[in-house]
């Protein structure tokens, strides 16, 4: 039986740090709460700061590998950005985001108006401190500028704990890859989550390189 991951959604800006269209420079909003390890999706609009907790130990054999023969299909968002996601995954969306999930893997795409593209410096100054405050057991790994088919992008890598399972209290240690792209006044954040130790390099590459503004 496959365990579906319960996801905390923040419709105002899940999984991304959002720029304000009225400011002189991008201003971040609170990211989504962490996906839970089992149960039904739950939504919240004000996650705020999380209580301090220690990183949970990674699983020896995490149930998170995406099959090599997985079929991907395209989704075009209301924000004008398109992304491919694995066919058959559950989908939940709102006015500024779409979320796809299966087992303990999650894809979250969010979009918002932004006055300018974020930089490595602005992400470190604004986004990273906010993630550290709002994501359980946040552990920053790396941040760099990259180039995707969709254009110049930022690629952040970090780890967090999942939300405890409502029944068992079990948590998973999650790897998170976050891509940030900007085009014509719209910022899109793509967040890819899977248990630490999962072999999802190729599927996640397929998803990130599928981002396009059309």
Task: Characterise this structure.
The strands form three sheets. This protein has a seven-stranded antiparallel β-sheet with strand order 5-6-7-11-10-9-8, with helices on both faces. A two-stranded parallel ribbon has the order 1-2. The longest helix has 15 residues, at 120-134. A hairpin with a 3-residue loop joins strand 5 (90-93) and strand 6. The chain is globular. It is mainly β. It contains two helices and eleven strands. The protein has a single domain (8-46, 73-209), classed as Protein Transport Mog1p, Chain A. The model is unreliable at 1-30 and 39-46 (pLDDT under 50).
What's the arrangement of secondary structure elements?
Layout: E1 8-9, E2 42-43, E3 72-76, E4 82-86, E5 90-93, E6 97-102, E7 105-113, H1 120-134, E8 139-148, E9 151-161, E10 173-183, E11 186-195, H2 201-209
Parallel strand pairs: 1-2
Antiparallel strand pairs: 3-4, 5-6, 6-7, 7-11, 8-9, 9-10, 10-11
Characteristic terms for this protein:
single chain, 214 residues, mainly beta, Protein Transport Mog1p, Chain A, seven-stranded antiparallel sheet, two-stranded parallel ribbon, 2 helices, globular, disordered N terminus
């Amino acid at each position: 039986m496959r365990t579906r991951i319960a996801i905390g959604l923040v419709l105002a800006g899940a999984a991304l740090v959002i720029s304000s269209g009225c400011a002189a420079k991008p201003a971040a909003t609170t990211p989504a709460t962490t996906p839970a390890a089992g149960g039904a999706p739950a939504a919240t609009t004000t996650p705020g700061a999380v209580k301090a907790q220690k990183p949970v130990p990674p699983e020896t054999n995490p149930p998170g590998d995406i099959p090599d023969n997985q079929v991907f299909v395209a989704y075009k968002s209301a924000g004008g950005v398109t992304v491919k996601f694995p066919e058959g995954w559950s989908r939940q969306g709102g006015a500024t985001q779409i979320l796809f999930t299966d087992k303990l893997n999650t894809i979250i795409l969010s979009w918002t108006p932004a006055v300018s593209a974020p930089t490595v410096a602005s992400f470190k100054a604004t986004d990273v401190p906010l993630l550290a405050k709002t994501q359980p057991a946040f552990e920053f790994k790396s941040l760099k500028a990259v180039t995707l088919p969709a254009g110049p992008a930022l690629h952040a890598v970090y780890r967090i704990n999942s939300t405890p399972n409502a029944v068992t209290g079990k948590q998973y240690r999650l790897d998170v890859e976050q891509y940030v792209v900007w085009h014509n006044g719209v910022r899109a954040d793509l967040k890819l989550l899977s248990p630490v130790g999962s072999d999802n390099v190729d599927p996640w590459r397929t998803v990130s390189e599928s981002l396009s503004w059309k």
